[in-house]
């Protein structure tokens, strides 16, 4: 049982390049989320999805796009990477969105934009 | 506007003693409060939670206290162990009347170091 798997785990991008982070969960969870963690800032919600085919903006959505074409996958895209997007990105999933005690997080993707 | 605040970025305690991690919040509408634990190079994992209608919840060595009038909660770890060394995040969310919940709001985290 893998839980929540993020790929890649590390990536270095040049400013202006694009990339997609993949989050996959095998728990049949409806809700999926992308967070970023920056030093001294806690975790901030970028985008989230309440079900297959749906997406919504979180606290810091600018510069990111997401897609949830399959229930088990939630993709986070950076169209034109900027140094300000250097961060650790975490994906999470939960069953219903109620009861965050059941939320599971991936191991994170460390992204550096130079 | 930071709704969940952890004002101590770090805390160091001796093994066997009590660790007390504090968290303050500004939104009186939060329904649940949670603590997550995060080790380096890993994602956060759920530790313990408390409903806004309770003032204490205990799970083994971990106890969370909620003081609604002061908008303050704390996590007590007794006795502290070196394996407890991690970053602890306080978080909160509100239940929606139409079902579901609002997003989880995180504090900035407190790094706990338990010295042998």
Describe the structure concisely.
The complex is a heterodimer of chains A (114) and B (116). By secondary structure, chain A is mainly β.
Descriptive tags:
heterodimer; A: 114 residues; mainly beta; 0% helix; globular; B: 116 residues; 6-stranded mixed sheet; 5-stranded antiparallel sheet; 11 strands
Written account of the structure:
The complex is a heterodimer of chains A (114) and B (116). With 114 residues, chain A is an all-beta fold. Chain A has strands at 4-7, 10-13, 19-25, 31-37, 43-49, 56-57, 65-67, 73-78, 87-94, 104-105, 109-113. In chain A, strands 2, 4, 5, 6, 9, 10 and 11 form a 7-stranded mixed beta sheet that branches. In chain A, strands 1-3-8-7 form a 4-stranded antiparallel beta sheet, with no helix packed on it. The radius of gyration of chain A is 13 Å and the shape is globular. The model of chain A has no long low-confidence stretch (mean pLDDT 91). Chain B has strands at 4-5, 10-14, 19-25, 32-38, 45-51, 56-59, 62-67, 72-77, 86-93, 105-106, 110-115. In chain B, strands 2, 4, 5, 9, 10 and 11 form a 6-stranded mixed beta sheet that branches. Chain B has a 5-stranded antiparallel beta sheet with strand order 1-3-8-7-6, with no helix packed on it. In chain B, β7 (62-67) and β8 form a beta hairpin. Chain B starts with a strand and ends with a strand. At the A-B interface, β5 and β10 of A face β5 and β9 of B.
- Derived structural class of chain B: mainly beta
Ranges of chain B where pLDDT stays below 50 over 5 or more residues in a row are: none
Rg calculated over all Cα atoms of chain B: 14 Å
**What's the mean pLDDT score of chain A?**
91
Quick one: how many beta strands of chain A? 11
Number of helices of chain A: 0
Number of strands of chain B: 11
Strand content of chain A: over 45%
Proportion in helices of chain A: under 10%
Q: How big a fraction of the residues of chain B is strand? A: over 45%
Report the sheet with the most strands of chain B, covering strand number, pairing sense and barrel closure. 6 strands, mixed
Please report the distance between the alpha carbons of the first and last residues of chain A: 36 Å
Order of helices and strands of chain A: EEEEEEEEEEE
- How would you characterize the largest beta sheet of chain A? 7 strands, mixed
